[in-house]
Amino acid sequence: MAAHKIAHATLKGPSVVKEICIGLTLGLFAGSLWKMHHWNEQRKTRAFYDMLEKGEISVVVAEE
């Protein structure tokens, strides 16, 4: 009758600390990606206006 004593994994509820850690990690990762994207766009915009100010490029406005 030893077969009845097999240990099974018991399902528990969610661990609050684990959920907070996972959420914090995912939030920081997503925030870092967004911030890097923002810095890259800001760098491109700054480079565009620097080139415009130096006269290396010009903006032509189409008249209607």
TrEMBL record:
Transmembrane helix recorded as keyword: yes
Cellular location(s): Mitochondrion inner membrane
Keywords noted in UniProt: Membrane, Mitochondrion, Mitochondrion inner membrane, Transmembrane, Transmembrane helix
Main location (coarse class): mitochondrion
Ranges in a coiled coil: none
Highest taxon above the source species: Eukaryota
InterPro entries named in the record: COX5C
Any one cellular-component term (Gene Ontology): mitochondrial inner membrane
TM spans (from-to): 16-34
PANTHER family membership: CYTOCHROME C OXIDASE SUBUNIT 5C-2-RELATED (PTHR34372)
Family: Belongs to the cytochrome c oxidase subunit 5C family.
Described function: This protein is one of the nuclear-coded polypeptide chains of cytochrome c oxidase, the terminal oxidase in mitochondrial electron transport.
Name this polypeptide is given: Cytochrome c oxidase subunit 5C
Gene: LOC109709629
